[in-house]
């Protein structure tokens, strides 16, 4: 899979993909992330990419022309399944969206800054608008990193234990059950006996019950559907 990300602060997007599972995905050739510096696609002086908004008001708006230049340049070599704009007024990202995006081949993400991007670019080039939650970030980069991570770890072969993504929280609309590791007793705090029983069927049942209980407790909204 290929994920291209257009940004005015490309340095923000180096570290998130250079470690751990995202690095393994890249090393195995399963995920390629390219970060494109929008300033390299502007024809305006001093690499300008934003301007004052028509109608007045505080805050700059990202201009349509550099964005179109960058997208059309990339489209010469890549056919995108989706062109995603990260924005607080988009659809709230969830595991279901991560699953469905992980089935695509090429994604392009656009990171906004300042007051956002010219509406004409949204109307004519963006296919999907996604928010990562009801709060405002200073730019779309961290949101693009969140999406890329959530999508990338779902690609077949990225996680060592193939089943482990399937038992994540949200994968079946349930939160994950509690987990424990060594030592068996720490400061008189033990672990549930069932986990030491060696009875895998009973352990699975216990985990399922715990997941349902935790979900009912913390996120009853997930159990509605
Ligand atoms: N850009 C600024 N805030 C954002 C958010 N919450 N989600 C996605 N992109 C954003």
Tell me about this structure.
It contains 6 helices and 7 strands; from the N terminus they run E-H-E-E-E-H-E-H-E-H-E-H-H. The chain is elongated and about 70 Å long. The chain has helices at residues 20-27, 64-75, 95-101, 119-125, 141-152, 200-218, and strands spanning 2-7, 32-37, 50-52, 60-62, 82-92, 106-111, 128-131. The chain has 2 domains: 2-152, SPOUT methyltransferase, trefoil knot domain (Alpha/beta knot); 167-224, Trp Operon Repressor, Chain A (Orthogonal Bundle). The chain binds adenine. Adenine (ADE) is lined by residues 86-88, 112, 131-133, 135-137, 140, 143.
Keyphrases for this structure?
29% helix; alpha/beta; 2 domains; Alpha/beta knot; 225 residues; five-stranded parallel β-sheet; binds adenine
Q: How would you sum up this structure in a few lines?
A:
With 225 residues, the protein is an alpha/beta fold. The chain has 6 helices and 7 strands; from the N terminus they run βαβββαβαβαβαα.
């Amino acid at each position: 899979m290929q994920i291209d990300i257009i940004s005015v602060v490309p340095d923000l997007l180096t570290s998130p993909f250079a470690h751990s599972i995202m690095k393994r995905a890249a090393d195995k050739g399963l995920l390629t992330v390219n970060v494109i510096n929008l300033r390299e696609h502007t024809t305006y002086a001093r690499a300008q990419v934003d301007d004052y908004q028509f109608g007045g008001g505080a805050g700059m708006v990202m201009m349509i022309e550099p964005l179109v230049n960058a997208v059309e340049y990339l489209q010469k070599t890549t056919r995108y399944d989706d062109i995603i704009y990260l924005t607080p007024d988009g659809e709230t990202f969830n595991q279901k969206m991560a699953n469905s995006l992980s089935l695509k081949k090429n994604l392009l993400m656009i990171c906004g800054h300042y007051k956002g991007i010219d509406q004409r670019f949204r109307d004519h080039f963006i296919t999907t608008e996604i928010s990562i939650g009801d709060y405002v970030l200073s730019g779309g980069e961290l949101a693009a990193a969140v999406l890329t991570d959530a999508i990338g770890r779902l690609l077949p072969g990225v996680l060592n234990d193939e089943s482990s993504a399937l038992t994540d929280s949200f994968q079946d609309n349930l939160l994950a059950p509690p987990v424990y590791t060594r030592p068996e007793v720490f400061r008189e705090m033990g672990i549930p006996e069932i986990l030491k029983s060696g009875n895998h069927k009973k352990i699975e049942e216990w985990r399922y019950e715990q997941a349902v209980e935790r979900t009912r407790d913390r996120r009853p909204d997930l159990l509605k559907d």
